[in-house]
Amino acid sequence: LDVGQDGDFSELNHSEDFLRERVKSYTTEVQLSGDFDRFKFTAGGYLSRDDIDFLSASIRVTRDTNNATIRPLVVVPGFPTVSLPVLNPTPIASATIDLGDPTVAGRQGQNSNNFQFTSTQSLGLFGQASFEVVDGLRVVGGIRYSRDKKTSADYGGPLSNTTLQGVQFPTLQPITLDAFSTDRSFLTSFQARTYSNFTFRGALEYDISPDVLVFAQVATGFLSGSLATAGTNTDDQKSINYEAGIKSRFFDNKLQINASVFRTEYKNLITSFQRPNNSGGVDTISSNGGDIKATGAEAVIEARPIDDLRLTLALSVLDSKFGTFNVLAPHQLVNGNPTAAGRFVNLSGVASPFAPKFTASFIAAYDIQLGSAGKITPQIQFYYSGRYSAQTQLSFVDPAGLQPAFTKTDLRLGWTSADERFGIDAYVENIENEIVNQRTTYGGDGIEQVTWGYPRNYGVRVRAKF
Q1: Residue 444: φ, ψ to 5°
Q2: What DSSP state is assigned to residue 421?
Q3: Is 185 helix (H, G, I), strand (E, B) or coil?
Q4: Which of 26, 51, 247, 403 is surrounded by the most beta carbons within 10 Å?
Q5: DSSP code of 108?
Q6: pLDDT digits (tens, 9 = 90+) for 249-285
Q7: In this structure, what are the phi and psi dihedrals at residue 334, rounded to the nearest 5 degrees?
Q8: What does pTM read for this prediction?
Q9: What whole-number percentage of the chain has pLDDT above 90?
Q10: From start to end of 277-374, where are the E strands?
């Protein structure tokens, strides 16, 4: 995988970033299941290995300085105490790139190459069993042991106060990147760490009738830490989930209702902060310490009043909020105000990103039977989302990452052959032509990059099974 992108997200030819990744992996799993009337069980093991070679490189193709005559500061509209530099660098007109001296203010440019070789060996042992205490009442219990053994060898590229010849990046394209280096003179860190954890699930299930099941459960979750290129590592992230609900079918399976309420608590989540490095740049470091608590309810109702008509309604209510969380950079805004220099801020009551308070969707489809000629199916799909933040870092509390409430409607008309091997669909998506913020990233020089969803679009798809 080779990826190239603009480093500062602007229209200026300021910097280029490159990523190269090579992955080798294998997995294997063994399961044993048994059914002894009232007692049922499943047990097994899981083993995997992932070897990843990762190269991250960047090069500035213009001179960069904070000298006010070249990069003047301007006041951010609406925030009179906050100023940001104007991106106005001058081109480097040379076949060689002068990387400058990081010890001198107004250095001419900079380059970085970081190579990381990681290996992760994962082992999982799991088992779950259920026992029917009395007719219709079951006790369910499960446990899993997880162990991740991770190693990371990190390499740095050319030093910042040297002159880089154009041969390394002759055309500034990802494919021209150097091969992965294993020169030990460039080795910056080596670390190995093993993460292990036991997680569990406990549940009660009761069949009110053959078509109605109610349940209550508690389960824990675990995500092992990470090893970063800066020689740092993080601890485990953990969660616990409480849930109760119902699964049911009525009227000879013509109506299905599934609903649940839940509360999930996340602890020790990985967050990010920035710190100056020895070369005069800034490193983004991951650390633990974030908390989120989410409470919600969801329901899905499916109905088939007649054989060829399908109706689906899905509703979700969510209250997901932060506790204490890390600050990415001291100059970020929190609730419209600059943060203090400390890394952690109290965000109690602030909604977490990508968590609208209410969502709803409705789908209606009807099959018009044509006998040996197949069938025609018109379909409408409607989706509503409350507002949410699409910011991936703490600056999501800045209004720049806010996505207001929106609706999205799709229409589709399809034909399917009688043997269901062939089909053709004509569609129109996002009839409202709503521009949806799917992701906002806090990037270089304080600029935010937004990834937008598709506007109104239409087309034809052809389907075939062989």
Answers
A1: -60, 145
A2: S
A3: helix
A4: 403
A5: S
A6: 999 999 999 999 999 999 988 876 666 555 555 566 7
A7: -125, 115
A8: 0.77
A9: 51
A10: 282-303, 309-322, 324-326, 333-334, 337-338, 344-346, 358-366, 368-369
